[in-house]
Specification:
By secondary structure, this protein is an alpha/beta fold. Helices cover 39% and strands 18% of the residues. It has one domain: TIM Barrel (Alpha-Beta Barrel).
Length: 286
């Protein structure tokens, strides 16, 4: 836990409405025009080196906007010990930038000291729940803040699974006492790939645990949907997002675009769509 006098690692800025993922292609435009975006999400792993131009730009953006951290390197589901060196870097970075929260994924990505650079799923078992919840709690102790964990898209299922994905997710966050970053695109992709009802997933999520939502695009590969984050949000995902807003209230939402990154105005257009839906369902400005 935090020691007396230690600087908090999260809580900086008020996060509301529709945010956009901060990408290096857009640094200059954002700083020159200061667009009306309520917050930006930062890809944590891109800034953990010593200094460099990206950190200079990030600090300038942070002076104007609240930010959140989103990472892929904690490997919370791995069977290896948590990478304390990595967590220490994340903590130091958070103390410097003061994000509103720190998030990572409900998955594993490292084994034998090697990182897969992919978000690999777990079997949905009681043993895996205990394992994941214990490691999230340990990471929270190291970081000194509450974690937010995101559901991942999946393309395989495990014969050993004892429950649904949403039952697994809820059990983990309850045992670990952390929050959820609910990726609506990932729910839809997995629902199509595995043949379950996406609304059953939404209905299982406890409102008090849902900290934020993600929206992104997928590719239809014919045999399955692939979560690429490289296209506009598809219409079925927009419809599911509207249902999520009605079911889970108007939590902050992030437009996520990671490959084939378009001009910034395209992200603003996606944010405008989300804002319209946000305001339509709540009757309040986003």
């Amino acid at each position: 836990m935090l020691h007396t006098g230690e600087k908090q690692v999260s809580g900086g800025g008020s996060i509301r409405g529709i945010g956009i993922g901060l990408r290096s292609q857009h640094y200059r435009e954002i700083l020159e025009n200061l667009p009306s975006v309520p917050w930006f999400e930062v890809l944590t792993d891109n800034y953990l080196g010593e200094g460099g131009q990206p950190l200079v730009y990030l600090e300038r953006v942070r002076a104007e906007y609240p930010v959140t951290f989103h990472g892929v390197g904690m490997s919370l589901g791995s069977c290896e010990p948590l990478n304390l060196d990595y967590l220490g870097k994340v903590k130091a970075f958070a103390q410097r930038i003061q994000p509103a929260w720190i998030s990572d994924h409900l998955c594993w990505s490292a084994s034998g000291g090697h990182y897969s650079h992919d978000l690999l799923p777990l079997p949905y078992t009681k043993e895996a729940i205990r394992h994941m919840a214990t490691r999230i709690a340990q990471a929270q102790d190291v970081l000194g803040c509450r974690l937010v964990v995101e559901n991942v898209s999946s393309y395989v299922s495990f014969a050993d699974s004892e429950m649904s994905e949403w039952e697994f997710l809820v059990a983990v966050v309850e045992q670990a006492d952390c929050d959820i970053l609910l990726d609506i695109n990932n729910i839809y992709v997995s629902a199509c790939n595995h043949g379950f009802d996406a609304e059953h997933y939404l209905n299982a999520i406890p409102k008090q645990r849902d900290r934020a939502m993600h929206l992104a695009g997928y590719e239809d590969q014919g045999t399955h949907l692939l979560d690429t984050h490289g296209l506009p949000v598809h219409e079925p995902v927009w419809r599911l997002y509207e249902k999520a807003l009605r079911r889970l209230d108007q939590v902050p939402t992030l437009i996520e675009w990671d490959t084939d990154i378009p001009p910034f105005h395209c992200l603003l257009q996606e944010a405008d769509k989300a804002r319209y839906m946000f305001e339509k369902t709540s009757g309040l400005p986003a």
